[in-house]
Amino acid sequence: MKKLLISPSQMALGEQEGHIYQNILKQASEISLNLMAVKIENHPEDFLGWCYELLNASRDRINHDLLETNQLPILKKLNDLLVSAISFLQLKTLRVAPWPVVSVFIEQHKDVLALDEQLRLANYIAGIREQSLKEMIPEDLLAFSGKHTSALDPSSYNFDVEWFSSTKSAKAFHQMLADLPALFDEALAHIPLEGEVTEADYQEFVVKYLKAFTDSNEKPTLAPATRLLAMRRPDVFTPINNTRLDALCSALAITKLNNRDFERYWQDIVQAVHGMSWFKMASGDSELDQQLVSIKALIPCFFYHADKNTPENSNYIKLLSKPKRTTTTGTRKVRRGKESAEILVDRALAADDMPEHIRAKRDSIISEVQKGRGVNETISLMRTIFG
Predict the structure, then answer these.
(1) At what angle are helices 115-128 and 138-145 packed, to 10 degrees?
(2) Phi, psi of 330, deg, nearest 5
(3) Residue 331: strand pairing partners
(4) Which of 49, 182, 192, 385 has its CA 20 to 30 A from that of 142?
(5) Helices (H), 295-361
(6) First-last CA distance in the chain
(7) Which residues, 6 or more positions from 85, have their beta carbon under 8 angstroms from its beta carbon?
(8) DSSP assignment, residue 257?
(9) How far apart are CA 338 and CA 137, in angstroms?
(10) Is the Cα torsion angle 373, 379, 383, 385 positive or negative in sign?
(11) In degrees, to the nearest 5, what angle opens at C-alpha 321 toward C-alphas 315 and 324?
(12) Quick check: pTM over 0.85?
């Protein structure tokens, strides 16, 4: 372990990397005796590999039973620093990487990225993008804006809607979006669904987005706005959130944005990503490359730290495996509005292999889905009963 800890001093680290290393070393020194008990056999010669190895040792192989209570926050901070460092180092490669390198990286890491699930979300959003927010059922609005709730039936939403920057902490934004979606529609109307998006288009969006908050006591913030923009045009706008903003800004060599930096977002994030070699040359004949090209502004999201635990932390996966909550009166279910139930059921019944006698039970299925039963669960029950 001692050899591992000091090995970056022999690497040709840049100024940013050197600063990151010193911060990591400071935290590691506080629990050095515990770390020394971890056997190290892999000694990477590059800083990114070093960060991965130390993270694996400090998170997965350290003996937590020997840690004092006051050491637990130190260990957490060490792990957080390493995760941020890995994200920074991987994002930094985007500044110089050509398209084939970017594409191969994503394909090689598709399992830890839960790439299939993320692409299912992107494809779903593509199918509802032309609707106005006001017209969307509540569940689709949550999917578009990036907030997971138990109302999202996993049989209808087979993905975590919080990929591509979660907005779950933006409570005021979601309350306004639910109450006054038409105001946000006015803002998004300035972003064309295809073709070039100019700075003037973006500025008009910002004016309307800020105006939506004029009559409320809430302050408009940048992160949820970038989620709306990224879902409107995933080939143009890169979403941000507060937990990953440090790594992204460091990788782009810019001062960290604050939550009101709407002007700097266009210049320092959008324009910076558009200026990168891989972004300009994005193309390909494979199905995966074609999918990635259509959402190429989201590609930085695939370069944040991810590991074998990332797919398991998907809200979709958690909801699939979550046991039903029961009360003394029975199972507690999330009731749905009739419009939501009708749309979700009709989508499921539209499947090519759906028997006509099940389609004939549409009204009964809708009634059960309104009560909170899952769409697939209800259809399976109908199949069992009616053969």
Answers:
(1) 120
(2) 125, -160
(3) 326
(4) 192
(5) 315-321, 338-349, 356-359
(6) 63
(7) 20, 24, 51
(8) P
(9) 10
(10) positive
(11) 105
(12) yes
